[in-house]
Design brief:
Structural class: mainly alpha
Helix content: 55-70%
CATH architecture of the largest domain: Orthogonal Bundle
């Protein structure tokens, strides 16, 4: 089937399909006499596998290595298991860091609430200037906090 139809069927863009081909994740399809890509029905399962693995947290380079082993008849199952286990451990660390950061932000907000309550109307509370040194980027506890994009109100 042609690229456009195959892309709609697999719910990925034609650019994504070409990217998967370039990376070696998806075998290059045969070409029609007019040089259009013509995907085999079996390619649908491969794209589905790639998309599911990406959603679970595998990277494209990891998938390339795993699928290369599989395509050569190897059994990468234990490696896949180990990689996902490592991803879960990293996720747990991120969650712990976020929870700690959340606790610190709540504490900071309580202090700001008190500062605002003491600040007369029409006067600056200087909240940002009151940020403690722990928030200066040197604290390991806050270093893993996600960076936010600057918005209109930053």
């Amino acid at each position: 089937m042609r690229s456009g139809h195959f892309a709609r069927l697999t719910r990925v863009s034609t650019d994504t399909l070409r990217h998967y081909e370039r990376l070696g994740l998806l075998p290059a399809p045969r070409r029609t006499p007019s040089n259009y890509r013509d995907y085999a029905p079996s390619a649908e399962g491969r794209v589905t596998l790639i998309q599911r693995a990406l959603r679970v947290g595998f990277s494209l380079p990891e998938l390339k290595a795993i699928l290369a082993v599989r395509d050569k008849g190897g059994l990468p199952c234990r490696r896949v298991h180990r990689l996902l286990h490592e991803k879960l451990r990293a996720m747990d660390e991120q969650i712990a860091a976020l929870l700690a950061w959340r606790t610190d932000v709540k504490k900071l907000l309580r202090g700001w609430d008190q500062r605002l309550a003491r600040t007369p109307a029409g006067h600056a509370a200087r909240l940002l200037e009151a940020l403690p040194a722990a928030w200066d980027g040197h604290s390991a506890r806050h270093r893993s906090a996600p960076k936010h994009k600057k918005g209109k109100n930053s």
